[in-house]
Structures are given as C-alpha cells and as structure tokens.
Recover the amino acids of this structure.
C-alpha cells in the first residue's frame, strides 16, 4: 500500500473528499430527476403563489381571513392555530402532569393507584387514538339543540361553544398585550425588590410603584382608547348561531386529548425528578420543622428541576409536533390547511412541504433554545 | 416528600386502613371518592362490555334500543377487515404464516432462557423480513401477487412497525457512529440530518416521503405507496434511534477505546467487537421505548391514505349498515385493547430486561 495511505490525516481527508463527492453526485442526480419530474407533471416552481387568493374558507381563524385572502395569510392562520393548540396544550399538560405526579407520590394508596393507572393508560395508547376517542365522545355528548348559559350570552351546541365577544378599547389585543408586557416588567422589577429585601432586611419603600405598574398601565391604555367597552353575545338564529367567539369542538378535542396524553409523560418525568432528590433532604427538613408545603417549595422542587427541565423540553416539543395530528379531526392547523388543503389546491408540493418542514423546525429550535437558556440558569454550578 | 410509611412496625390491616386512607379529613374524602369512582368506572366497563352487550346480530337493528352496551356483532363483521384489510380471502393463509413465523422468532429472540440468540437475531433481522416480504407481496414461487393497496388493518400496523424497527436499528447505529465520528464532514451531515428529522412532526416526514421522494427518482419508476411510507417511517425512527444509541456510546468508558487502540484494533474492529455491544446493552430500555413510540406512531399513516388498524376502524364505523350509538365506542374499545396489549407488553418486557441487566452488575 502506498505510504501516504498510512497517514491517518491523509486518509481522513480523502474519505471526507469522497463523501462530499458522493453527496454532490447524489444531489446532481436528484436535482436532474426533480427538474424532469416537475416539468413532466406540470408543477410550477416558485413562491409567487403565496400572493394569490385562496378561494376557500377556514373554520377557525385568529386573524381576519376570508376567501379573498392570500396563501400567505392562510399560512399565518395555520401557524397561529398551531401555536394556540401548542400553548394551551403545554399549560394544561404541565398542570395536569404535576397533579398526577403528586398523586403518584402521595401516601394514599388509592391516589397512587389512580395516578398509576392514568399514566399507564395514557402512555400506552397512541395519541391519535386518544384524539379520535375524545372527538367521538365530544360529538356524542354535545347537545344538538342550543344549550344556553348566563342569560343567553353563552351558547353550547354540537358545532361549538359560542362565547360573547368582549372588546375592551378599540381592539382587545392592545389591552392583552399591555397586560402581558406589564406582567413581565413587574416580574422583572420584583427581582430587584427581592434583592433589596435580602440585602437590607427591610421592604423597599418603592415597592408600591412596582405593584401598581400593571393596573396603572392597563388603565392608561384603556383611557387612551376612551374607556370603550362592548359586549357582543352570540345570536341564535334559526339554522345556526351567528356572532360570538366560536370555539370549535375539534379544537377542544385536539387540545384536551394532547394534554391528557402528554400529561402522562410529564407526570413520569416530574416523579422521576422528585424521587431523585435524596431522602435525607426531606428527613432533615422535617427534623428542622418544615411542613410539606415548604419542603416542596424550597428543597424538593429546586433540586428536582435540574433533572426535570431537559426531558420536559422534549415533551413540550412533542406537543407542538403532535398538534399536526389536527389533520385527522379536521382542525385547521398549519399542516392541515397548508400542507393539506393548499397543497391540493395549488400544484406547489415541494415549496409547501419545505415551508411546513422549516416552520416546525424553527418552532422546535426556538423552544429548545429558550429551555436551554433556562436550563443554564438552574444547572448545578461548579462541576464541568 | 412523605414516603408511604406507617407508625407501627408491624401494622395489621385496620391500622393500615386508618393511617393510609383515613389519616385526615381531606385524606378520607379523597380515599372514599377515589374508591367510589374506581368502582363506578370498573362497573360501567363490565356493564358496557358484558352485561348489556349485544352478542349476535346481522346489522344495526340488533344494537339499537335503550341501555344497549357494546355492539359485538359489529366487531365480528369487521374483524377480517381490521386484521387483514382487504387482503384476498384465499390468500389470507400467507398473512397467517407470516404472523406465526414472526411470533415464533420474536419469542425465540426475547425470552432470555432460549439459547442460540445469535441465530434468532440473524433470523429476525435478516431472514424474516425477506420471507415475510415474499409471502405478503407474492409474485414469486407461484404465489399470487397481492398489491399493497389491498393490505390494511393490523397487517399494515405490524408491517410498518416491524419494518421501522428492523431498519431503524442498523441505520440508527450507523448514524450514531457518524454523529460521534472525528471526520467533520460526516459529523456535520449526521447532525444536520438528525436534528432536522427530530425537529419536525412525523406527519410532515410522511408527506415528504409520499410526495417528494418519488420525485427524486426517474419518472418511469412508480413507487409503491406503502414503500414510500416505510421509507419515511424508517428515516424518522433512525434519527431517534441514533440519539438513543449515542447516549449509550457516551456511557462507554474512554478506557475501552484506548485499550482497543493499544491492542491494535482498527475503527470497525473496536466498534463492532468492543464498544457497540456495551453501548447497546446500556440502552436496551431506551431502544425498547423507541420501539414502543414507533408502534404508536404507525397510527399516523392514515393521513397519507394507508389504512392501518385505527384507519380501518374509522372507515368501519362510518359504515351506515352498522350505525348505532354504541358502534364507535365498541370499535374504539376493541382496538384500544389491541394497542394496549402490544405497547404494555413491550414496556413490561423492557422493565423486565432492565431489572435483569441491573441485577447482573
């Protein structure tokens, strides 16, 4: 064998060169086949279709949308619907998972048995099965004639739950944004308050300013919009209900089923995290006179969080990705409207699927990055 | 947290009840409500499935009426569809042979007491797929060819799951090795592939496999619909498997690599004879968990018009001939039990193996 082949670096370099060559060849072959097939099947390639009108309606849209809207707006509608399911699902699943985990760890054998059965059943049955089951139950349980609550302002029937549209100011979204931003600011400032208290042992005198930030901000924004307020209940017509904020049963089935499914996994993760804290910690705390509440708050949960956060992140990602199952129950999420309906209506298979894939990839990456930042903050410092 | 302990060293059942279930007012309320609810649920299930159930009948009229429970005639009528799909009746013996062979080979592979594991492994992962493929697809040895359009139900579920499992392990191992490789090009390619596939839902991967991968080939090559799905599922499962195996690789002590180098093993020798056996043994629970997830994910093929067990059930209970209030619940319960049987069985097996491996140490 020639001498240069005995040099490890040379061999590695040559191997990588071969791999790149092979890859380039594959891409060339695939690319030429792709071009041929696109021409043969009459598919057009290009992103200009995003500005054409769609011509079909969607049953649930968080932004204004009609048949005249473009495919780009359709994409936004789908994305917002997916995000809605993801956010609501994550919150519900975490709360439910926490409750189940605590039940699993309780001293009461009845609670433990219930939690264990719940976890086994929800983790072993497929997600799609649970979604279909919830959907079937919901469709059978919802009344076919209108059921009204709160003096006819809330209507429930098999086509959905109709809530009154409460508009605060010109558009509720301004107040909602104000609340979110003000809450975040208050949360941020309260860390300064806490640092002051720890440093001096007294409460900061300016703490009322921080507490007042949220209500004052909301009042200011509302005053700026003239203190307008409107309450528009849904109207029960002869054939259907008009007006009101409509929550479709597909959304409830999808979100509920996904939350129930993921809560089983989250419960196991939280349980494993809590069990990993050594028992001596609890015993020492009990000897010092901590009650259960304090033990959980100051000793168990902070230590358990380090073990819980990474697998919890992947479960949150799973909820976001499993929201694509909406296509099976007819909920208009990103996959269903964009990679489903839009793909059938236009011929742009490749662009649509690529855009969908990239969207989910971005969502996953953003969630991962956010959780990694949080993870870095609570990680064990010291050992590398 | 309060671990379940009692105050007396040798409690009798009365003490146990008193301290565990009724130690405080809140605890007593929870216990009574929990027990009552459990009894109600179990009784309702028995009531639905056995006592009020209908056992014989020809169509929906048998299952109408007040207080009717499960509609078992519906399940009988649709049973062949649920298990075989629309596989031609005269050829069903081939599917049965495949089922029997698979069961036997998996029993031989999975029960630790049975010897000759190397042969079971080789048979299950190399011979069995080929034999099953030939029997199911036909066209060779005088067997009538059966297009995959006729396959359905449990047959599709098991074919997709088994193919995914059989392919994801070797491809996953190669991907994990590439991911941990010292060649930057290979490592980057592996990372890009794994992170891309893990970041997107299986449904979009299936769409990609069904709509886009056929475009990569020559236009005269009409790829079978099931084949596209199998490719998509295999790629998806391989990425997850690669991450699991990488975890196992990281747990193998550095000294093993160094000793192998000192003894003169090359890369492939080290990997196949020393590192991989240890790595795989470390992560058998993780591998089985991936298999369980893969089995559950086979339900997703219904979105690309392949009718697996759940898809076939949805089609079956839409049949107007059997439309009654309890048809859907009966079907869902039946299929639910089947899925639970497989996945719970796999998870119990994984726990059993984990215990055995830990007791070895």
């Amino acid at each position: 064998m020639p001498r240069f082949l005995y040099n490890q670096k040379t061999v590695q370099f040559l191997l990588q060169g071969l791999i790149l060559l092979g890859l380039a060849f594959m891409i060339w072959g695939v690319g030429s086949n792709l071009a041929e097939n696109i021409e043969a099947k009459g598919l057009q390639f290009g992103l200009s279709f995003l500005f054409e009108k769609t011509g079909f309606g969607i049953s649930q849209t968080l932004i204004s949308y009609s048949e005249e809207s473009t495919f780009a707006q359709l994409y936004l509608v789908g994305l917002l619907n997916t995000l809605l399911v993801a956010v609501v699902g994550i919150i519900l699943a975490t709360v439910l998972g926490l409750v189940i985990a605590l039940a699993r760890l309780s001293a009461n054998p009845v609670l433990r048995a219930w939690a264990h059965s719940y976890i086994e059943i929800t983790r072993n049955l497929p997600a799609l099965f649970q979604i279909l089951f919830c959907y079937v139950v919901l469709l059978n349980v919802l009344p076919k004639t209108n059921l009204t609550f709160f003096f006819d302002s809330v209507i429930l029937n098999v086509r959905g739950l109709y809530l009154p549209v409460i508009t605060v100011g010109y558009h509720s979204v301004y107040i909602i944004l104000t609340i979110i931003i003000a809450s975040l600011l208050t949360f941020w400032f309260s860390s300064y308050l806490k640092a002051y208290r720890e440093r001096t042992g007294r409460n900061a005198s300016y703490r009322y300013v921080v507490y007042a930030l949220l209500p004052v901000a909301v009042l200011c924004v509302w005053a700026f919009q003239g203190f307008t307020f409107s309450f528009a209940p849904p109207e029960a017509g002869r054939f259907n209900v008009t007006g009101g904020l409509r929550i479709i049963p597909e959304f409830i089935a999808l979100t509920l089923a996904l939350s129930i499914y993921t809560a089983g996994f989250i419960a196991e993760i939280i349980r494993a995290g809590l069990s990993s804290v050594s028992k001596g910690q609890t015993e020492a705390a009990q000897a010092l006179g901590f009650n259960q509440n304090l033990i959980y708050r100051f000793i168990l949960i902070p230590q358990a969080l380090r073990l819980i956060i990474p697998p919890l992140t992947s479960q949150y990602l799973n909820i976001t990705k499993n929201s694509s199952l909406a296509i099976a129950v007819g909920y208009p999420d990103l996959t269903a409207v964009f990679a489903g309906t839009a793909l059938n209506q236009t011929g742009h298979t490749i662009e649509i699927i690529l855009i969908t894939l990239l969207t989910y990839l971005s969502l996953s990456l953003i969630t991962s990055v956010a959780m990694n930042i949080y993870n870095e903050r609570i990680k064990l410092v010291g050992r590398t | 947290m309060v671990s379940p302990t009692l105050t007396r060293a040798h409690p009798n059942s009365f003490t146990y009840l008193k301290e565990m279930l009724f130690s405080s007012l809140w605890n007593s309320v929870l216990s009574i409500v929990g027990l009552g609810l459990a009894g109600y649920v179990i009784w309702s299930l028995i009531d639905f499935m056995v006592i009020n159930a209908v056992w014989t009948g020809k169509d929906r009229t048998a299952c109408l009426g007040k207080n009717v429970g499960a509609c078992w005639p519906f399940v009988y009528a649709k049973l062949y569809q649920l298990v075989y799909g629309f596989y031609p009746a005269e050829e069903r013996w081939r599917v049965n042979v495949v089922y029997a062979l698979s069961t036997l080979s998996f029993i031989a592979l999975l029960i630790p007491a049975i010897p000759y594991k190397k042969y079971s492994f080789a048979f299950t992962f190399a011979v069995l797929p080929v034999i099953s493929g030939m029997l199911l697809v036909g066209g060779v040895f005088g067997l009538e060819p059966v297009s995959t359009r006729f396959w359905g139900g449990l047959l599709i579920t098991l074919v997709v799951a088994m193919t995914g499992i059989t392919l994801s392990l070797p491809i996953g191992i190669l991907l994990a090795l590439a991911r941990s490789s010292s060649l930057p090009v290979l490592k980057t390619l592996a990372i890009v592939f794994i992170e891309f596939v893990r970041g997107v839902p299986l449904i979009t991967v299936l769409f990609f496999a069904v709509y886009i991968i056929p475009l990569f080939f020559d236009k005269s090559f009409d790829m079978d619909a099931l084949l596209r799905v199998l490719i998509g599922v295999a790629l998806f499962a391989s990425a997850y498997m690669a991450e699991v195996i990488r975890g196992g690789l990281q747990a193998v002590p550095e000294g093993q690599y160094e000793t192998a180098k000192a003894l003169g093993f090359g890369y492939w020798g080290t990997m196949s004879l020393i590192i991989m056996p240890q790595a795989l043994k470390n992560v058998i629970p993780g591998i089985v968990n991936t298999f369980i997830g893969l089995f559950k994910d086979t339900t997703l093929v219904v979105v690309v018009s392949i009718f697996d067990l759940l898809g076939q059930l949805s089609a079956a209970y839409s049949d107007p001939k059997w439309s009654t209030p309890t048809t859907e619940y009966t079907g869902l319960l039946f299929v639910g039990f089947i899925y639970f049987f497989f996945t719970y069985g796999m998870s119990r097996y994984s726990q059993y193996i984990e215990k055995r491996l830990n007791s070895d140490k």
Observations:
- Chain B touches chain A through 60 residues (CB under 8 Å).
- Residues 327-360 of chain B form the longest helix (34 residues).
- The mean pLDDT of chain B is 87.
- DSSP finds 14 helices and no strands in chain B.
